[in-house]
Amino acid sequence: MIDIKGDNGGLLVDFLVDFKAYDPKNIGVLQLALNQKSFQKLHSITAESIPKQAQPPLASTLVNLRSIWAACLLHCGARTMIGFLSGTRNYETKLNRSMPIFSFAPEFELLESDPRAIEPDLGRTTVFRHPKRMKEAWEYFEKCVFGGKYDQPLQRTFSYVMAELTTSPVMVADKGTMKEYLSVEAERWAANATFLCYDWWVEPEDRKSILSAAGMWLFPGDTFDKLIGNEDGKLVANLKGCKPGLLVARLA
CA dihedral defined by 176, 179, 180, 184, rounded to 10 degrees? Predict the structure, then answer.
């Protein structure tokens, strides 16, 4: 996943052009994943800022690009939800076991739909920044490259991936760190419940059986075009009825 440092979105141009130049097959990048901050930095690019010698290989790369994944990585609070006390992070008070936990494992398996009973947790999904802004930023970038005129149709699909990327010191990369992550989470949830007097909150029995997943949800590119709102100062999406795919990390 690409994380553009600094404020220069043009670094992505350099990366795509260099990758194609060093690709023995001269194809270039076929799949691309960027985080939210990197998409925002694409607005610093203009058509004039793209070097003329970079234009042909860059255009060729974008034509051949197959998949773009816009990463909505939610920080602490996406699973341990403490309601109005979390500012703009949560809408409800509950332990959201459905939200996938971002993993640094090198391999993933794609399931076409999440097989877990996640529907009750999709009603008010906190998304922080509006995910659609990433899609708009990428379309702006394409317009800078092609000037709005496409000699060849673009083949890429645009999708969103979503997971909790916590500020916890535990990074999930294998079965051991996943177990440790869940242990820390359980301790924090118990501490929050006691400190905030949430003893009245009782987790439904059927929700306790939800298995936590290391990986990411995968949503199609039109998911957030309309399913978004601002409720009590919190940017949320009503994703009920959606059936996201699940990228499951292969934990050794």
Answer: 170
**How much is the average pLDDT of 34-43?**
94
* CA-CA-CA-CA dihedral for 225, 115, 30, 70, to nearest 10: 40
Dihedral sign (CA 43, 49, 51, 56): positive
C-beta neighbour count of 211 within 10 angstroms: 9
Mention every residue, 6+ apart, whose C-beta is less than 8 A from residue 114.
Answer: 98, 213, 217, 243, 244, 245, 246
Neighbouring CB atoms inside 10 A of 243's CB total 14
Convert the pLDDT of each residue in 154-212 to its tens digit: 999 999 999 998 767 889 999 999 999 999 988 888 887 777 666 556 778 888 889 99
Instruction: Find where tokens 């959201």 sit.
Output: 96
